[in-house]
């Protein structure tokens, strides 16, 4: 059920804002737009920016349905806000276009393997809601070349996608090690992968998770190796527009809800009303209670999210884990209680 008290408060605030906007318009003052949360509820749809296609993160099945780690986060937010994970319109965005699409209001949320950096945070009118995946930049090489280290790449031709932090990171790494390389720049991953596969480049550099995705798409994945070096920190997470703290907070706590749910062993099965554990269901309701009051969400919003996408572990293993073509281990993305650094603030 929707929290009526919270909704009433929001309706009064919306009415007051509308009256204020009318007065501003009459006085010739430019009015600010409605909040993103109000926009999403008003159209009954979340508009979510994703990549143009990256195995494990955002891809289409044979029926044309989007799936993947980033897609599941869009679905989780829609489930929390609208009660239905299917109420999402997906917008494919290149690395060059992703942030402008958000600041221009073309999307409500960017869920597209984007690195949180100080310059992006401060200069682009963006807010990073949290870290969904801890990554680092690596190198993909042809196994036949016998390379085992990036320190063997002096004189190499390196494929890189423009509009990312990747080239700058790599250039700094090779300069620090007194090595000369040549960068071949491409507008998207598909072009870069094709050039690498054809031998136009000696190696392909990107976030390690993206390299695992690209490797899985090559004709013979075992003919390619990801070198041991990780040369950067790449904290990836959902992005919102600056100046809309309520929406950013909501997105943040959906993410933290997924992580806390894994830690508390809350799953779709364990919180099922008929066959689950009443204590687990009660804990999920407790976890979600502050969001009911603050955002006007349903009392069971976290349960709705778990039923839609599962907890963080479910999302990871389904899309990226060792039983998928990417075959990624949790590594640093394991919970802090299990040797990783994945950590979320408490929810109550």
Give the topology, please.
Blueprint: H1 4-26, H2 36-43, E1 46-50, E2 59-60, E3 66-67, H3 69-82, E4 88-92, H4 98-103, E5 109-110, H5 118-123, E6 126-128, E7 133-135, E8 137-142, E9 157-161, H6 166-176, E10 182-186, H7 189-197, E11 203-207, H8 208-217, E12 224-226, E13 234-236, E14 239-241, H9 245-263, H10 278-295, H11 301-309, H12 312-319
Parallel strand pairs: 1-4, 1-5, 9-10, 9-11
Antiparallel strand pairs: 2-3, 6-14, 7-13, 8-11, 8-12
Helix pairs in contact: 3-9, 3-11, 9-10
Features of the shown structure:
single chain; 348 residues; alpha/beta; D-Maltodextrin-Binding Protein, domain 2; 3 domains; 5-stranded mixed beta sheet; 3-stranded parallel beta sheet; globular; disordered N terminus
CATH fold-level name of the largest domain: D-Maltodextrin-Binding Protein, domain 2
How many domains is the backbone divided into? 3
* SS-derived structural category: alpha/beta
**What's the N-to-C terminus distance?**
20 Å
Q: What is the averaged pLDDT score? A: 90
Quote the beta fraction: 5-15%
* Pattern of helices and strands: HHEEEHEHEHEEEEHEHEHEEEHHHH
Gyration radius, in Å: 22 Å
CATH class of the largest domain: Alpha Beta
What can be said about the biggest beta sheet?
Answer: 5 strands, mixed
Helix content: 40-55%
Task: Give a count of the beta strands, DSSP E runs of length 2 or more.
Answer: 14
Which regions contain 5 or more consecutive residues with pLDDT less than 50? 1-33
The CATH homologous superfamily of the largest domain is called Periplasmic binding protein-like II
